[in-house]
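Subject: mismatched residue count in predicted assembly?

I count 369 residues in my input, but I want to confirm that the predicted structure covers every chain. Input:
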Amino acid sequence: MATEELTLAILTRKADRQTGAFEQLLAAHERMVVGTAFRILGRMEDAQDAAQDVFLRLHRHMDRIESEPKAWLYRVTVNVCNDFFRRRMATTELDIAHADPSPGPDHALSMEERKRLLMEGLQTLPERERTAVVLREIEGLSTREVAEILGVEEVTVRSQISAARVKLAKYVQRTTRKRS
Amino acid sequence: MNCQECERLLAADETSAGLDRHLAECVECRELAADLRANAEAFREMTAMPMPSVRGAVLGQVRARETRRQVARWGWALAAAAAMLMVFVATRQAPEVQRQATRSPALQEEQRRATPLAGSEKRLAAQQNRQATRSPALLIAREMRQQASPLAGSEKRAPAPQEPLKVKMLTSDPDVVIYWLIEPKEGSE
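Triage response: the counts match. Full output below for your records.
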């Protein structure tokens, strides 16, 4: 085989391997990235745009990611979503069409309403509290993992989550009282 | 225990006998505790929500970007190669052009008669001679033709370089380096 053909074959195989690895990462973490983006942004359309941005960054930096891809993806998702959130107009309506259908009729109504109110309430939180509560409460990460992703101490994360829980509970109470 | 202390303990998921006593006598704190529990349950349900796929859109964009990158990479490489080739050919032809320009008209006429060219080729050669001082590209073409034909010219050509010319071209991609080896034509002396 000529040198040029050999070089081309090596480059092609390298590209194929990278593409395969990327597609595997995309398949494994797609739901996680879209879900996190949706909880932070509150709109599915924005969440999908943000998720695409995250995966394109992943593809661009595949060679340079030395740490765990999951932690890297969470970190980039949070950063991309926070940028989205800051740019977004305050008048944007939240997308509640993607609320999950629940099992029983009575319980379903109240739980559905609560989820909707929580999604609304999340958008009223400060950026750090919103991110911390999404990662800890919805994504189910440990306090240490959240601290690593956000680059803060664990005690800070605990404090942010506590504050966010109380604010969300009071937001739900306040909104429910106003409507009734 | 006051309501503020109770709120702090509830939010941090902590328990104590003092907290239980306060909850037993404070309606507002009991409501807060109930909401915190219900919210935690709602969050857990939200975890299982189905999400739309972005795989197709992402892979489409990745492929489009890869195609653009390949086109740009090879476009630049080919442009660089073409430029290097032109420089090389022009450098090789420079002495010959100078000789052509200084050659006497009588000698040029003698050379044209000695060349066994077909009728159409003769016309082409005459046209090339007319344009020799204007068009370097035609000069190069004529030189190649003269080298290929059994020319009986008495003049001596400039010796061709014996070592192959090696041109190394770096591209924007550090993984891609193009080597262009130009070997001297055998029997061109």
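Chain A touches chain B at residues 11, 14-15, 19, 22-23, 26-27, 30-31, 34-35, 38-39, 44, 48, 51-52, 55-56, 59, 98-100, 102, 111, 114-115, 118, 137-140, 158, 161-163, 165-166, 168-170, 172-173 (CB under 8 Å). Marking this ticket as 'not a bug'.
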